[in-house]
Amino acid sequence: MDGFRVMSMTEAAKLGDVFCTVTGNKSVLTKDHFDLMKDGAIISNSGHFNVEIDIPALERMSSSKRTTRTYVDEYSLKDGRKINLLGEGRLINLASAEGHPASVMDMSFADQALSVEYMVRNHAKLEKTVYKVPDDLDKRVAKLKLESMGIKIDRLTPEQEEYLAGGAKEPKGGHRTSDVSPQQNPCRDSRPRLSSGPFRAARFLFLCGAGTPVRCF
Ligand SMILES: NC(=O)c1ccc[n+]([C@@H]2O[C@H](COP(=O)([O-])OP(=O)(O)OC[C@H]3O[C@@H](n4cnc5c(N)ncnc54)[C@H](O)[C@@H]3O)[C@@H](O)[C@H]2O)c1
To answer: How crowded is the C-beta side of 57, counted as CA atoms within 13 Å?
Structure first.
């Protein structure tokens, strides 16, 4: 969606200089990947918990380990390469830096506070189950955040709202991108892109607001 190139971890392992896992999964970086990494590669994790990088496997592959500076452990592999592990594989921004910046947490706290207010006001009609944060509340927080940062974005016109609500069907006489010849099509890059309708629309508006007139997804 952001235009990043995607690839398998096996392919990425050969190319990367710095790796940071943020998946919430386990064994995302394993021996198979360490085997392929460049000498001097830096690996870290920011997901919960310190199981995303298979540190026991890295230990087994290493002939020695030394702390080169605070939060940096250099593993010397038996084949001579070195791999640097940051923050013992714990959440890097919490273990080795200053945690969550207030500018990120303020949105979570605003959502939580307004959700509590919503529950107090609406408890009579709520069932004992888990609800998603109401969309208008979520949007209000996002709007306030953007305003506080001095950022202006476009508003959808009523016609655009209606079009999206109706499932964004192809208009009569309209063209899909695939109808356009490759020469006419500005989105000729054939690499895979992850995108979904609403996200694509929202992202496009944001980028227009930021002054980027054309962007292909
Ligand atoms: N460090 C922090 O401050 C911080 C803040 C928020 C969330 N987190 C943690 O970050 C992790 C991710 O959170 P999220 O909200 O982005 O989750 P998410 O589910 O939205 O995103 C995780 C992504 O990882 C992908 N993934 C899962 N296994 C993978 C694998 N083996 N290889 C490659 N990709 C894989 C999933 O497909 C998904 O796209 C969670 O553990 C969460 O607790 C950390």
So the answer is: 13
In this structure, which topology does domain 9-95 adopt according to CATH?
A: Rossmann fold (3.40.50)
Q: What is the pLDDT of residues 182-207, one digit of tens each?
A: 454 444 444 434 333 333 333 332 22
Domain ranges of the chain: 9-95, 100-151, 153-168+183-217
pLDDT in tens, 150-166: 999 998 999 999 999 98
Count CB neighbours of 101 within 10 A: 10
> Cα of 136 to ligand 1 centre, how many Å?
25
Atom of ligand 1 nearest to the CA of 48: 41
Question: Is the whole-model pTM more than 0.85?
Answer: no
Structure tokens at 109: 């706290």
Task: Give the model confidence (pLDDT) of 107-123 as tens digits.
Answer: 989 999 999 999 999 99
Atom index in ligand 1 nearest the CA of residue 93 equals 1
Question: Is the omega angle on the peptide bond into residue 49 within 30 degrees of 0, that is, cis?
Answer: yes
Residue nearest to atom 26 of ligand 1 (CA): 23
